[in-house]
Amino acid sequence: MTAKVATVTSGKGGVGKTTAVANIAVGLASLGQRVVCIDGDIGLRNLDVVLGLENRIVYDLVDVVEGRCRLRQAMIRDKRLPELYLIPASQTRDKSAVSPSDMVRLCDDLRQECDWILIDSPAGIERGFRNSIAAANLVLVMTNPEVSAVRDADRVIGLLDAEEKGPVHLVINRIKPSMVKRGDMLSVEDVLDLLAIHLIGIVPDDENVIVASNRGTPLAFDNKSKAGMAFHNIARRLMGEDVPFVDVENQGFLQRLFSGRK
Amino acid sequence: MAKEPSIVQIKGIREGLMVSFGDADWEALTSALINQIDERPTFYQSARMALDVGSHALHVAELASFRDILSEHGITLWAVLSGSSTTEQTAQNLGLATRISKPKPVETIEAAEAIPDDKALWIQHTLRSGTRIEFSGNVVVFGDVNPGAEIVAGGSVLVWGRLRGFVHAGAEGNEEAVVGALEFSPMQLRIAGKIAVSPKKNSKGNVEIAKWKDGNLIAEPWKSG
Prior knowledge:
heterodimer; A: 262 residues; alpha/beta; Rossmann fold; eight-stranded mixed beta sheet; 41% helix; 16% strand; globular; B: 225 residues; Alpha-Beta Plaits; Pectate Lyase C-like; five-stranded mixed beta sheet; 4 helices
């Protein structure tokens, strides 16, 4: 096995990186892939909470890097799926506890053991960001349909270009169809127009995401919600499948049928 | 202890440390520098370093990984000086300075004729937020200039694409400079000493040219001839 390392990053905070990592990981793992998630947000760890694995942390990323435990010991297995693991971040240290070359070494060790390594990058473009992209084979840049988030995504894409990290794919999170329709929110086209990179996912805004994150049960465990479906689709596209985009901006299939008859 | 003449020279400058690489291969030079750093780690802790690599042609992978190694030693690499244009390009891509700025002489604004007409910087990609291009001559961008990107040119600026960022043309005082774009909606525009903020308008597909006219900065649809 040679794993692909995929980093999820955004520049701006609060656009949904951690939620996306958890859900895409669940999506990939339910396709039978062996997935290891790494929380790159040292000092402000969240991924363990969203995945509901907080109470099982014994060792963390910094323990591995500083040699206090073996890699295997820091990998927490999610019991709901056969092959989903988490390497949590340390909560009591900061970004400088790990270096970019530590991350490269760690991922090289892991590559033989799994199919996917998903790295949750912290917000910002400093050390934590550099750590998170150091080993990446591909990068998912997340943004919300807001001008400030798109501006930061643009900056991050520029930095990734300069470092020759790629390919870079775009995930647009929290689209509200009704607001787009009223012209109060940037549309998918507006965002793509500016960023001009490959789109790999559109996730509609969904209150259940918050509920699921609080419970520690990522939405992707439940296939029925629209947001959960969107994350499953991203996982399938990462696997190379050609999945058509669900038209989130127009209300729904039935409504379009009826409005077409008038 | 007799020391062999070092291939790496380190001296202090106003902006921090200045490291000059001699004539040897890249591997040898970098490891020699790291050895010196390891000998006196406290001296180098949180230092700002400028690096003169001579004529070495460096690509992104080499320079980025060396920057990361330095940062693990607590050193910030902020500038790379080189005689090689490849290296300069690489350094600019990584957001590193390529010259150590000297204090600006007071009488810079009068260099209008000094810009050679035939010298232009050709940029063949979109400028994203956070990119800053400074050039003494004309600048031509084959791509978009996104909001948050900046161009400061001594001469004129032409954008074969959408201009939505910040442009300062004729930055050294040249009032003859013009700014043009296929889709003209800059966040802010300056020509020589005049500043204009573009009115909020939907400007899809309007080819415009901005220039000085009767002491004002105006933008008008482009007409040939």
